[in-house]
Design a protein that fits this description.
The chain is of the alpha/beta class. The chain has helices spanning 20-31, 46-57, 91-101, 122-130, 164-173, 191-203, 235-248, 267-275, 307-315, 336-346, 376-387, 408-414; strands at 2-6, 12-15, 36-40, 61-65, 68-72, 85-86, 107-111, 134-137, 146-149, 155-161, 181-188, 208-211, 215-218, 228-230, 251-255, 278-281, 285-289, 297-299, 320-324, 350-354, 357-361, 369-370, 393-395, 418-422. A hairpin with a 2-residue loop joins strand 4 (61-65) and strand 5 (68-72). Helix 1 (20-31) runs parallel beside helix 3, helix 1 (20-31) packs across helix 6 (191-203) and helix 5 runs parallel beside helix 6 (191-203).
Length: 424
């Protein structure tokens, strides 16, 4: 499927869907409780549906109702999956799932689509082995397909968490290990996502010691308690609308966003404010109006998912914009540093690739035929670029947006966007 994006006059109100990161954590914690847990207003997307199927493989009973998911968990009595666990395109489900599988008395095989099969997990594999589990990559390259055997018994491990999902996986699994666990963290990217995981551990009654994110001590033999949780709106999804408002000069009101939530991508709001956007943060919404933007230097280590959209913002900002310290953006669904540089250049961007980020200079964008590379965040970023470019922009693999944001097209059209779907 392709998007044919036309320059558009936009503005208005939009309801942002639920957080993918919170939804997937809630599903996994629901699996690991003994009772019934309730998730209100979860994100419904390909990624979260992949996670639903994954926890079913380990024995969870999931009831899907309108705006509510009910999970009857298995606690520490997880079952051995009957077949290979296919996580689709969901990297979060893969990495957290590897930790879950280390709690099972048996072996679990994980795979996914072609992008997932290129995602590294070697550091996490090593840590599972350190904790007395079994783990290996079938191709001996640290990437899926990956086989995990349990149960982990605890112990000590050191992990370089190039993605926060490695450490999140261990933090979720360790309380159910038979013994205590000590995790040393010499490298941690995306620290706000660890704060999110720790908030969940706190809510569910887990005992641990956090030594400044450098070391974690987790008591073994614990239990997760069941819960009822409301899923807040997703700042990662909101990023596209925040950037679109900023580059268009329009005023948007984004509903459902709670600035008190632990999501790291709320930092995008402050970045755009620093670039010159007018921002009014309310209790459960954000009003943003585009003004004349100016460039600057921004460290995206904590918020790598924002790089594609912010690279578009850089094209509309006076001077030079530097998006730095985000090498892990190369390890997502695509190498997003290289891909955004390649595709924005087709639209006329003055953009330069660095090892750990991008340099962008103000550039009038023109419509072009660009590739989405099957990456949902790349497709959505090129869409907002196309709405503000001169002439029409054609984007392939547009179906990828369903991975995290199935109603992206509908919502952006309510703001006045002119986008035609071309079926292939």
């Amino acid at each position: 499927m392709k998007y044919l994006v036309k320059p558009s006059k936009i503005g208005g109100k939009v309801n942002i869907p639920g957080s993918k990161s919170h939804t997937i954590r809630a599903l996994v914690f629901g699996l690991l409780t003994d009772g019934e847990s309730v998730i209100e207003y979860p994100l419904v997307s390909s990624d979260t549906e992949s996670c639903v199927e994954m926890i079913k493989c380990f024995g969870a009973d999931v009831i899907i109702e309108e705006n509510t998911w009910r999970i009857k968990g298995k606690g520490s009595k997880l079952v051995v999956p009957e077949d290979v666990v296919d996580v689709g395109n969901s990297g979060t489900s893969l990495y957290i799932g590897l930790g879950v599988a280390s709690l099972v008395n048996g072996y679990t095989v994980f795979t996914g689509d072609h992008q997932i099969r290129n995602r590294p997990a070697d550091s996490l594999i090593k840590s599972i082995i350190d904790l007395k589990g079994s783990a290996f990559s079938t191709r001996n390259n640290g990437k899926p397909p990956i086989v995990i055997g349990g149960r982990i018994r605890g112990g000590a491990t050191s992990i370089e968490s190039i993605t926060s999902q490695y450490l999140t996986s261990l933090l979720i699994a360790a309380p159910l290990a038979t013994g205590d666990t000590v995790i040393t963290v010499p490298l941690l990217n995306e620290a706000p996502y660890i704060s999110m995981t720790l908030e969940w551990l706190d809510k569910l009654g887990i005992e641990y010691i956090n030594n400044d994110y450098k070391e974690f001590r987790i008591k073994g033999g614990q239990n997760y308690r069941s819960f009822r949780e409301y899923i807040p709106a997703d700042f990662s999804s909101a990023t596209f609308f925040l950037v679109l408002a900023s580059i268009s000069g329009a005023e948007f009101i984004l509903n459902g966003l709670d600035f008190n939530d632990s999501q790291g991508d709320k930092q995008v709001v402050n970045i755009l404010r620093e670039m010159g956007a007018s921002v009014n943060i309310r209790e459960k919404s954000i009003k943003i109006k585009g003004e004349k933007l100016r460039g600057g230097g921004f460290d995206l280590n904590s918020i790598p998912d924002s790089l594609p959209a912010l690279s578009v913002a850089g094209c509309f900002a006076e001077g030079e914009t530097r998006l730095i310290n985000v090498p892990q953006a190369r390890l997502k669904e695509t190498d997003r540093i290289s891909v955004m540089c390649e595709e924005l250049r087709k639209m006329g961007a003055d953009i330069e690739e660095m090892e750990d980020g991008l340099i962008i200079r103000r550039s009038p964008l023109k419509g072009a035929r660009v590739r989405g590379h099957g990456d949902h965040r790349v497709v959505m970023s090129l869409t907002i670029a196309g709405l503000m470019a001169y002439g029409e922009t054609e984007i392939d693999t547009a179906e990828a947006v369903s991975i995290t944001f199935p109603n992206f097209l509908n919502l952006i059209e309510t703001l006045g966007a002119e986008i035609e779907i071309i079926e292939e």
